[in-house]
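Service request form, structural biology core

Requester: graduate student, group of Dr. S.
Request type: structure prediction, single chain
Budget code: on file
Notes: please return the result as structure tokens.

Sequence provided:
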Amino acid sequence: MALPTATGTTPCPECFADITLTDVMQHEITQCPGCGAELEVIGLAPLTLALAPQEEEDWGE
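Core staff response, request fulfilled:
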């Protein structure tokens, strides 16, 4: 069974530029070509983006 994907245009939540995405999966990380923000696909129907969570440093633990 194939994982669900989406294709479409949606606004960047940081700079509001329209971003066109092709065959993206939920939780995929992408980058806004306008402002460079790292974005996470949080919804497929409708196609929705949010700022990607920042990775926390583990300080060698």
